[in-house]
Design goal:
By secondary structure, the chain is α+β, with helices and mostly antiparallel strands. Helix 5 runs antiparallel to helix 6. Strands 2-1-3-4 form a four-stranded antiparallel sheet, with no helix packed on it. The longest helix has about 45 residues, at about 200-245. The protein contains six helices and four strands. The termini are far apart. The protein has two domains: about 5-130, no CATH class; about 140-245.
Length: about 250
């Protein structure tokens, strides 16, 4: 690799080539897979989605020390900063800066095992919440959201009705797109019966409506997963609110 961009640097340059780990790329693949429509339909397993999230975070932590870098900036055993296209394995855990095309990524020092596990748990929990996966709320959070168990039930009813209305509307749009596709296909068939090839406009319209159908199906699948997650979240909330209020009647 060329080191011309480092001309004038007062830091020593070493010539050995680093070896790279595939875990970062695999993590990216898992993130992509988690977004595929096949994994977000109404039958998707929450445990499967969580496993993908947890696996991704685990890999990102494990693979942090082998990020592919053009250059590494780190402190050697004597505390002197060096710039190299490799980093001694025994110094990786102390942290370093990865430099690629002029951009810098700071890799922090490796944490003790107990702190690593805590950080992984926190990151996984945060990712699960952002993905809408049901989780246990704190009592303080619940008391801010609901006045009583009946309030939980009422909120659940409103939310589910809203999601179901959105699904119904999207399905109606999907049916309209399918009818539109049939019209375009009939136009193409008429031209073929007349000995003509489908026009460029017809082919473009068919391609466009096919893309819209795929996108609409994905929207329906996401809404169905949202409904599944929502029901699971309200189930957890209601169970805890019942325990906190111990059967006290709802206030109206």
């Amino acid at each position: 690799m060329s080191l011309a961009g480092c001309a004038g640097s007062s830091l020593p340059i070493h010539a050995s080539r680093p070896t790279f780990d595939a875990s970062e790329r695999l993590c990216q693949q898992l993130t992509y897979v988690a977004n595929l429509p096949a994994l977000i339909d109404s039958t998707a397993s929450l445990k499967t989605l969580l496993a993908l999230l947890l696996g991704c975070f685990g890999l990102s932590v494990a693979g942090a020390q082998t990020i592919s870098c053009e250059l590494y900036r780190y402190k050697n055993a004597n505390g002197v900063t060096e710039l190299s296209n490799s980093i001694p394995p025994e110094l990786v855990d102390r942290g370093y800066t990865c430099i690629n095309r002029g951009r810098e990524i700071v890799v922090p020092p490796k944490l003790p095992p107990n702190e690593q596990e805590r950080d992984r748990d926190e990151e996984a929990e945060k990712a699960a919440k952002e993905a809408g996966v049901p989780h246990e709320r704190t009592d303080e959070e619940l008391e801010k959201l609901y006045a009583s168990p009946c309030d939980v039930e009422a909120s659940r009813t409103r939310k589910i009705l809203s999601i179901e209305a959105a699904i119904k509307s999207t399905k109606a749009n999907l049916q309209g797109l399918k009818l539109k596709k049939q019209d375009f296909e009939e136009e193409a068939a008429e031209r073929e019966r007349a000995g003509l090839s489908p026009s460029a406009d017809i082919l473009q319209n068919l391609e466009s409506v096919d893309a819209q159908i795929i996108e609409t199906n994905n929207d329906i699948a996401k809404r169905q997963l949202e409904k599944q997650h929502t029901l699971g979240q309200f189930e957890l909330d209601l169970a805890r609110m019942n325990a906190l209020h111990r059967g006290r009647p709802c206030s109206h």
